[in-house]
């Protein structure tokens, strides 16, 4: 039995099996650890950009010079543009992850065509990601509610 934090049991085949994802290796569901490190990399990059270009004369370490809303806006733009067009953020790329279209259809799981999710899915995913709560509530396949709503999943490259 898994807890809500682990996403609960996913049934036969392991995490992501209902989405047609392999249990291990390329294309398998990304682990929470990799996703968290990728998020830290992306947020740190956005903090650096916000403090370098929008500090307004503030002094101190970069994480204190950056305005929180400006950092969030940069983070949203990074996610929208990169996930929507190439399927990964800078942090995802460094950690060997990508965002793919995923979901169930009447014929079965969506096949992985290797393409980016697109602007519409990227916009919905980014909006919900920036709200935070949908991103920290997971389903049995390990997808955050933001990914589930957008019909995407984060997988290993």
Automatic annotation (TrEMBL):
The chain crosses the membrane at residues 36-57, 69-91. It is found in: Cell membrane. Signal peptide: none annotated. Residues 30-151 form the RDD domain. Coiled coil: none annotated. Pfam families: RDD. One of its GO terms (cellular component) is plasma membrane. It is a multi-pass membrane protein. PANTHER family: PROLINE-RICH ANTIGEN HOMOLOG (PTHR36115:SF6), PROLINE-RICH ANTIGEN HOMOLOG-RELATED (PTHR36115). Residues 1-20 are annotated as: Disordered. Keywords: Cell membrane, Membrane, Transmembrane, Transmembrane helix. Its main location: membrane. Residues 8-17 have a biased composition (Gly residues). This is RDD family protein.
């Amino acid at each position: 039995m898994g807890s809500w934090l682990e996403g609960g049991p996913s049934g036969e085949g392991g995490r992501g099996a209902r989405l047609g994802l392999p249990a291990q290796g390329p294309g398998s569901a990304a682990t929470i650890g990799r996703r968290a490190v990728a998020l830290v990399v992306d947020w740190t990059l956005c903090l650096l950009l916000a403090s370098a270009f929008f500090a307004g004369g503030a002094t101190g370490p970069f994480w204190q010079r950056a305005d929180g809303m400006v950092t969030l806006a940069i983070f949203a733009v990074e996610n929208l543009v990169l996930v929507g067009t190439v399927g990964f953020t800078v942090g995802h790329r460094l950690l060997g992850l990508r965002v793919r279209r995923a979901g169930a259809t009447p014929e079965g799981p969506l096949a992985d065509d290797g393409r980016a999710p697109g602007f519409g899915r990227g916009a919905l995913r980014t909006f919900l990601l920036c709200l935070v709560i949908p991103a920290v509530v997971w389903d049995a396949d390990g997808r955050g509610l933001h990914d589930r709503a957008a019909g995407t999943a984060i997988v290993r490259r």
